[in-house]
Amino acid sequence: MAARAAALLALIVTAAADGPCDILGAAGNPCVAAHSTVRALYAKFAGPLYNVTRPDGRSANIGVLSPGGFADVAAHEAFCSELDCVISNVYDQSPQGNHLGQRHKLVNASRHKITVGEQVQVYGMWFDPGYGYHVDATTGIATGNDPESIYAVMSGTHYNGGCCFDYGNSETNDRDDGCGTMEAIYFGNAHWHGNTGHGSTGPWVGADLEQGMYLSLIHISEPTRLLSISYAVFCLKKKKKNKEDDID
After folding, report:
1. Are 40 and 64 in contact (CB under 8 A)?
2. Most exposed: 55, 157, 171, 196, by fewest CB within 10 Å?
3. What is the model's pLDDT at position 221?
């Protein structure tokens, strides 16, 4: 499972009584991976959200202000006062323990400060090309033809044309295993083999299914289109494919 996206599942206007994963679980679709450096995704979650590491090798977990609340920015800034920490891990808040660790370079922990809710300041994750996180030894994650839904919150203004700025479910051997062997949300203005979303310039949201980004096949109310907003919520949903659905 790979994560190369900013502020993963991060921005909800206020910390509600029920978190996003409480709502999904009540609907029969429990979260099997819940990552955020910004807030708890369960109403009762009181554990660490992420881990920061200084150049001297010392590290600290950053938790929430209260169960179900936002990240403890004071603890972050006290430990990372020189602004030179990296985020070493993003913890999975679900019971599955699919914590994200280093895949490529680690992001600076203090670069992307944002304001949420009632003027609460927290840190998202600022990704440039060459930065990324993953977990290979997963539990409970969809494989093969299993159905799944993926949600992410990303900056609508920070993107590039490279491959590939994703958050989602990919191979656990860190190799390209061929077409259709991953499912991830892509955001950016890449032109994969000439494929684009709406218009000639991005950014676009798309589905990265390995060896192809499908920028016009997301099931939302309108085709993929240009964005001019600071943050956007994206969703990728796969239904189980039945044999009778095959087209000869």
Report:
1. yes
2. 55
3. 36
Rounded Cα distance, 192 and 107, in Å: 26
Q: What is the pLDDT of residues 227-241, one digit of tens each?
A: 456 777 778 877 766
Q: Tell me the pLDDT tens digit for each residue of 23-40.
A: 999 999 999 999 999 999
Cα separation of 230 and 157, whole Å? 6
Rounded Cα distance between 18 and 34, Å, is: 14
Joined together, the tokens standing for residue 164 give 């590939």
Q: Calculate mean pLDDT across residues 65-83.
A: 97
- Say how far apart CA 104 and CA 208 lie, in whole Å: 19
pTM: 0.82
Residue 112 is encoded by which pair of tokens? 């992307």
* Surface-to-core class of residue 193, CB atoms within 10 Å of its CB (0-12 exposed, 13-18 middle, 19+ buried): exposed
Residues facing residue 105 across a β-bridge: 131
DSSP state of 228: -
195: which strand partners? 192
